[in-house]
Amino acid sequence: xxxxxxxxxxxxxxxxxxGDKVFVLGHHYxxxxxxxxxxxxxxxxxxxxxxxxxxxxxxxxxxxxxxxxESADILTTDDQKVVLPDLAAGCSMxxxxxxxxVAECWDVLTEAGVAEQVVPxxxxxxxxxxxxxxxxHGGTICTSSNAxxxxxxxxxxxEKVLFLPDQHLGRxxxxxxxxxxxxxxxxxxxxxxxxxxxxxxxxxxxxxLWRGHCSVHGRFSVESVNDVRERIPGVNVLVHPECKHEVxxxxxxxxxxxxxxxxxxxxxxxxxxxxGTELNLVRRLANRFAAEDKEIVFLDKTVCFCSTxxxxxxxxxxxxxxxxxxxxxxxxxxxxxxxxKHAKLALERMLALP
Length: 354
Ligand code: 13P
Ligand code: SF4
Known about the structure:
By secondary structure, this protein is an alpha/beta fold.
């Protein structure tokens, strides 16, 4: 839907007034009406790096979700303020692993006598508490664009990986990229005693996957892949690694949002693509590449937007920018120093991956 011209003008004016004091980051899943005001767009890895590379900006306005803003706060200087235009923009996957549950899991691993061999690898899509846990136990953060390198690093440090909170990214990376089998992976269910696993199962496993998933990507199915192949002969199926293992196995290409964009940029004219990721991004790409005669469709029409990403809309962005321009610091995301110290260690390990 076209943005309200009055709001567009207000956002533009507030941003101009702020000048270099503000830096606006936009995740690829954001609405077009928000993306038009982003100084930089990217996947979660690129945005974490870009946030850290702007020490002169007093305000970092993060158009994305809560865990991304927390990570930006951890990676920026203490004087910089990270702002999330709507505090209700969380992530249901990140909420699937709480600090208490993860501490309990570590106790279970300790009881089973395997904790010493385990290196935690936590997906960026997790709270700062989980990142701090990861740092304390010698682990690293990863994103969908460096999960393979993170696992390679982790298996140099120990024999087993506790991967959290996205079981699908963990399983897909282990099986597709690391030569492991499905039998090498076990699923730890935080809602069951001992995670629903025996000590023997934990001893035999290479990958201990946390039972979390993305409610958007989890809805793509093998049927949607089969349907689109039937409907559009010669179609290339390209999906995000947060999709289920069987969907990823049925697809032609798999990668992060940034990878998806690069793949379409490199695609020849006349090619056809079905994309399994968030709808704002797929629509934007379909519009952008229509002019180059690349046909881009959404993998499954019954799947909808990420509702929390969508909470950041133009009215919230205008309110945020106008407040900052008037000197009112609103919606600041600030991680406490103790959590930050350990979470930063884990994030820096990721940034240092080869
Ligand atoms: P990437 O942008 O890193 O591919 O992550 C996708 C996602 O779901 C972020 O929430
Ligand atoms: Fe979280 Fe999924 Fe939304 Fe990404 S798309 S923010 S993983 S719920």
